[in-house]
Write a structure and sequence with these properties.
By secondary structure, this protein is an alpha/beta fold. It is built from 21 helices and 15 strands. Strands 1, 2, 3, 4, 5, 6, 7 and 8 form an eight-stranded mixed sheet that branches. Helix 4 (123-138) links the parallel strand 3 and strand 4 (143-149). Helix 4 (123-138) runs parallel beside helix 5, helix 4 runs parallel beside helix 6 and helix 14 runs parallel beside helix 16 (391-404).
Amino acid sequence: MSQEQFPVLKTKVDPRSDVYAKNREENAKGLARLTEVLEKARAGGGEKYVQRHRDAGKLLPRERVELLLDRDSHFLELCAIAGHDVDGHATGASSIGGIGVVSGVECLITASEATVKGGAINELGVVKSRRLAEIAEQNRLPGISIIESAGADLPNQHKIFVPGGAAFRDLTRRSEMKVPTICVVCGSSTAGGAYIPGMSDYVVMVKQQAQVYLAGPPLVKMATGEETDHEELGGAEMHSKISGVSDYLAEDERDALRIAREIVAHLGWTKHGPAPRQSVEAPLYDPDELLGIASHDIRIPFDSREVIARIVDGSRFSEFKPLYGNTLVCGWAHLHGYLVGILANNGILFSESANKGAQFIELCNQSGTPLVYLQNITGFMVGKKYEQEGIIKNGAKMINAVSNSRVPAFTIMTGASFGAGNYAMCGRSYDPRFLFTWPNHRIAVMGGKQLAGVLEIIRREAAAKRGQSVDEEQLQMAKQMIEMKIDQESDPFFASARLWDDGIIDPRHTRDVLGISLSAAHNAPVESNMSYGVFRH
């Protein structure tokens, strides 16, 4: 079926309604908060350290990234608020990472945030770098690292040393996979950090700025008694002329970034996945309306078809089993020219919707069609009737299908993400290629009120068994505390700070974020799978 044969979705959205106005007002507040947090990440170490960096004649890390990119091309920043409001961490986790176009090639770009503790990497910085490396490997993206780092944050070395070593392993694995890595050294890269250029395929060093060595002059003197200086021990000219660690000696940072672009240009890079359709239609409906559609309160449902209509090409959608399992919407659409299968929650998951989802995932694997999950789920239906009807085995079928699916998967969390519904709709632990959230998103085992209510029932039953009365004041205080704690920990900014997702996005940008993600994923071959674990019947 060609795109033109897909039916056009009809909209029922009323921009004049009170519900729409309230949603828009509250979602605007969420976006204002997001803007504030992102500005904090972009501020680096603050005015004092930014100025110190400039006074040294250096480009700021984000300026380096900007100069590396093709003019007027996109840069999809990833994990931008990692570390936000986490003790001992700067917003952004002392690094910048994302997907950008360099010499016409989509690359995974990382840059040390040298204005924050000299670019020293901390615990969440390691987690972020591992996630970015995973994205590069899964999607077959050439990597460009712009390095100026003091190495590990030594007071916290016990949290960094063991997992941090995987960064070097990841570099050499990508090289073995024929996915090139380019390292541009703009400053210090010492101790274990010296292995980043050491294990990259191409290395560019900036004259009189780059310093790469396993041990600096003070440590060398302590260990061997040898007197030496930074330049003869690990300077750019020494590594370019004597050791051979550097492949290119750049006159300055701008020259180094030019050389990096030149290297990418001669890679002869080709994508292994199928190309998108040449004709791409914009949605018929304004994506700006998503702010009024997405519910600010996860207890209030909204029709996921209205979201689909504002992100897919021409608002065209070929729905699968529209009369069966109607709390899960499944169907095919094109998104920036790429054919995708979409699974979107329209309520709690019942046995019928779980069975439908499992079958749809199998069909998309049969045809090699990437999957997009629009997750807004409070979980699977519970109760005696549903347990007897086999909600566990039917839910397990869908989770089995999600677990063993091999086509690229992309998850957008548009509302709630509770319980096993997170798993069935391809949450973080199910390895979607990319996972983004909206500012109205909430994630937890269950809602705060529900968990507090469960706690009350358990305490009352326990007291009754002991023949004791319940201290009502103490119980209400405990309920209030647990509800506040769960509400705080289910906040999207709490989750994104801990890298449970790849970033919080403006709902209006969902189509383009998915388009960039799909394009990046198609650098790799699109694999599929029709082999699954045992389905319980």
